[in-house]
């Protein structure tokens, strides 16, 4: 079983900073704390609307990080040009909608095949490896391989949402009332199905020669399930780490997640 890498997403430090438009908390301080306390990679998302990470942040993080930087971005041409100039260790292509609170699903590799293929070619021309953030389906794994990506990141949002409905009194606000009223046995069956989908997709991606990561909604309570999937070699986790840091400090929050994700 391969060692699990922990990618710490520090976007939400910038979310707090942008709430007051001052340089507090300092994103570069967060970068160094994560680097020194168990992160294997730093992950940031340069969104089209710049709601948290700014262009200057991305540049300083990539230039100043002692760890590889995974830069998430859309397939927007303007954003891709910036990413190619910044030359991160890896670019992860993700879907974006301006009105969404957070990424709601994986890239549609069929509908946007031409644009994604162009984006991958542009990034490869700049010698930047590419990961595709996708839903855990066999079709997505095969299309990712066909498009020339080196890696896939499996969207774990469905799993995380169902887990929260079963085990947490603080359910995510985007659950429908209908979902919340489902019997526990039905939810447990849905959770088992979502895990099976992740396992099957990870195994298929691995068989195709793709490296496999996972992320979205993972936290201190549910991350153990990902540790059981041997083909997953990287987890990208942000919101739960930054939320925990409010109470325990960022250094301890990263160290604790690293303990939970160590093989």
Structural write-up:
By secondary structure, the protein is of the alpha/beta class. It has a single domain (5-260), classed as Aldolase class I (TIM Barrel), CATH 3.20.20.70. 49% of the residues lie in helices and 15% in strands. It has helices spanning 11-20, 27-36, 55-64, 77-86, 113-125, 138-147, 157-167, 177-180, 184-207, 223-227, 239-248, 250-260, and strands spanning 5-9, 41-45, 69-73, 90-93, 130-134, 151-155, 211-215, 232-237. It has an 8-stranded parallel barrel, surrounded by 8 helices. The longest helix has 24 residues, at 184-207. The N and C termini lie close together (8 Å). The model has no long low-confidence stretch (mean pLDDT 93).
Q: What's the topology here?
A:
Elements: E1 5-9, H1 11-20, H2 27-36, E2 41-45, H3 55-64, E3 69-73, H4 77-86, E4 90-93, H5 113-125, E5 130-134, H6 138-147, E6 151-155, H7 157-167, H8 177-180, H9 184-207, E7 211-215, H10 223-227, E8 232-237, H11 239-248, H12 250-260
Helix pairs in contact: 6-9, 7-9, 11-12
Question: What's this entry about, in short?
Answer:
The protein has 263 residues and is an alpha/beta fold.
Rg for CA atoms:
18 Å
Known CATH architecture: Alpha-Beta Barrel
Categorize the overall geometry. Answer: globular
Low-pLDDT windows of residues? none
The CATH first-level class comes to Alpha Beta
Which class do the helix and strand fractions yield? alpha/beta
The percentage helix is: 40-55%
Number of strands: 8
Give me the CATH fold name.
TIM Barrel
Main sheet: strand order = 1-2-3-4-5-6-7-8
Report the span from N to C terminus.
Answer: 8 Å
Strand fraction equals 15-25%
